[in-house]
Design a protein that fits this description.
There is one protein chain. With about 220 residues, the chain is α+β, with helices and mostly antiparallel strands. It is about 45% helix and about 15% strand. It has helices at about 10-20, 25-35, 45-55, 55-60, 65-70, 75-95, 105-115, 155-165, 185-200, 220; strands at about 125-130, 135-145, 170-175, 205-210, 215. A five-stranded mixed sheet has the order 2-1-3-4-5, with helices on both faces. α2 (about 25-35) crosses α3 (about 45-55) and α6 packs antiparallel against α7 (about 105-115). The longest helix has 21 residues, at about 75-95.
Length: about 220
């Protein structure tokens, strides 16, 4: 039976409009994105099949284009749309950090950094630059390494912080292994950067290590 023949309150689009997006399952949300099914399958059937094959929404968003192109009901156009949706979600989170208000909510910062860093195949080191009221100036990727780590140079971090006229910084990097636990090398690096920035009167407020869906805060661990 086609979705148009379902009871009105069971159709994903109508259900969303009547009850809000939070009332929909992952498959129903994805079905709205897909818009149509394939022969013998409704959009909801196809969505369920894709979620099973990609192990959920995260796996679907993180899949490379070759794998997506090979999936039933997907292709270059849907790949582009998926990437656009993901980037819009990231930018939405990013804008919530840049509304001119002081950064007082660690969870907003944590959620944004997880969305930016958790699925990257390489280790990436970023700096979040803040003014003297802890308002966000910018987020910038400074170093990109391999699965074994990134080479982070204190002189570059200091120079970039001065260019942004930052009064404080928050560091973030990912562990492609998925394990967010800070390593000894992470602790040594953080101390080196903190010491270098102290020479120019710039404070380090935190360092987040992003793993598989979580981010460990140095400040919360008492490691700063």
């Amino acid at each position: 039976m086609a979705i148009k023949d379902w009871p009105v309150d069971e159709r994903p689009r109508e259900k969303l409009l009547a009850r809000g997006p939070q009332a929909l399952s992952d498959a129903e949300l994805l079905a709205i994105f897909l818009r149509s099914g394939v022969r013998g399958k409704t959009a909801v059937d196809l969505a369920r099949e894709l979620l099973t094959g990609f192990d959920g929404l995260r796996g679907l968003f993180a899949a490379d284009r070759t794998r997506l192109y090979a999936a039933t009901g997907l292709g270059p156009a849907k790949y582009a749309q998926l990437q656009a949706v993901l980037e819009m979600a990231r930018r939405h989170l990013g804008e919530s950090l840049k509304r001119g208000n002081p950064l007082v909510d660690p969870q907003t910062t944590r959620s944004y950094l997880i969305s930016r860093l958790r699925d990257l195949p390489q280790e990436v080191f970023c700096c979040l630059y803040l003014d003297n009221r802890h308002r966000v100036i910018a987020l910038e990727e400074l170093f990109r390494g391999t699965l074994d780590g990134a080479s982070v140079h204190p002189r570059v971090v200091v120079r970039k912080a001065l260019e942004h006229n930052a009064a404080a910084l928050i560091f973030a990097h990912n562990h492609p292994s998925g394990i967010a636990e800070p390593s000894d090398a992470d602790r040594r690096l953080t101390q080196r950067l903190k010491d270098a920035l102290a020479l120019v009167d710039i404070r380090v407020l935190d360092h987040f290590v992003v793993g598989d869906g979580e981010a460990v805060s140095f400040a919360e661990r008492g490691l700063l």
